[in-house]
Amino acid sequence: MTDKIYDLAVIGAGIMGLSSAFIAASDGPEKRIVIAERDIVGSGTSGFAPGIQINICRNQKERSLIDCGSKFWRGIYPDGQWPKGRDCDVFWLTRNPGELAKQGSAGQLSPSTSFALVERLLSLEQFVVPDDVSVVLDRGSYCQVDSIVQDLTQRLKIKGVSIRESTSITKIRKGPRNILLQTSDNSELSAKRVILAIGPWLPESPLRQHLTDEPGLRVKKVVALHLAVRPTPNCPMIGLFDDYAFLIPMIEQGYWLFSFTSQEWDVKPVSDELRLSSDDLARANAILAKWCSSKVPAVKSARVFCDCYSADGVPFSRPAKDIAGLHVIGGGSGNGFRFGPACAEEAVRSLYAADRHAITAT
User: Which domains are assigned to the chain?
Assistant: First the structure.
């Protein structure tokens, strides 16, 4: 066992784990922080997810998470200076404008017209907006989450954070003074505090036993198609609200990304087993056909991955039930980029609350 004792150990180097380490390191540069990752940084959901920021949420809990996440990202990337991404207009299309208004930020959404949208979609010539569809304009952003992961990793290294790839944690136990993390090669890490953030690996991990108030975790497949159509520089993002699907103009990459909801549950986070199915294609084509005057765009390629979902679909941040100083975050629901920083901040604030109280008392 090493004699080095870390102030904080983070298990998992996805967007939630990296955000946790970044928040902790920014609060106290003198902290000794380590990140343990079973594979390589960003090898899970964060390596495939499209990172979109939109002003739509289902409830107040999601609104709080989104607002916190937006503040976090703007602090790192002010004025839309995303790596491989940009701020953009978002055109929402819906036959239920009342529900869209209810889920949108107050004062953010404004009416628009189908003409205003279609004239900016020259690359999607067959795209049409039926007369009974409301068009609403908003602002948002998109980026490649894997580029964010790599950028955060470099920033963390500059801050002195240790990142240990190919380090799988198999057991967490309370030692006499600190928390002990056992690795798959039977070595140990020692830390005063631990954040467990292992994404879709959590439901079947033995480390799940530490999670209090079981939130009914399941893993669902996530699919996004790369359409063989090149977007132009002024293309907006399109939100198909009634199907909760998105057309995202990946300008640098040279294709439109079509993200839609898969209904394939209880999959395993094994990349070789996650494939685009005929049902996925049928579901995607059925949605696209509603908006295309002729044949839907061809599929160039696809990204297929998975993520952890809680029973209510809202990400969670909770102290462990059996080990003081251990916090579990997860349930990104394919939106760890939007929700993750808020979960990370709650975990870090909770774990360091005693230190702040002690400083205040003195």
Answer: 5-361 (3.50.50.60)
Which contiguous run of DSSP H or E holds residue 282? helix 278-289
Rounded Cα distance between 14 and 198, Å, is 7
Task: Say which amino acid occupies 320.
Answer: A
**Whether the model pTM is above 0.90:** yes
The pairing of strands 218-227 and 299-309 is antiparallel
Q: How far apart are alpha carbons 7 and 21 in whole angstroms?
A: 11
Ramachandran sector of residue 325 (left: φ over 0; alpha: ψ -120 to 50; beta: rest): left
**Rounded to an integer, what distance in angstroms lies between the CA atom of residue 350 and that of residue 331?**
19
For residues 195 and 35, give the distance between their C-alpha atoms in angstroms, rounded to a whole number: 9
Amino acid at 40: I
The answer to whether residues 231 and 251 touch, using CB atoms and an 8 Å cutoff, is yes
pLDDT tens per residue across span 144-201: 999 999 999 999 999 999 999 999 999 999 999 999 999 999 999 999 999 999 999 9
Strands 194-196 and 8-11 turn out to be: parallel
Going by the DSSP 8-state scheme, the letter that residue 80 receives in this structure is G
What residues have CB less than 8 Å from 29, skipping those under 6 apart?
A: 159, 160
- Burial pattern 26-36, b for ≥16 Cβ within 10 A else e, equals eeeeebbbbbb
Q: Exposure of 14 by Cβ count < 10 A (0-12 exposed, 13-18 middle, 19+ buried)?
A: buried
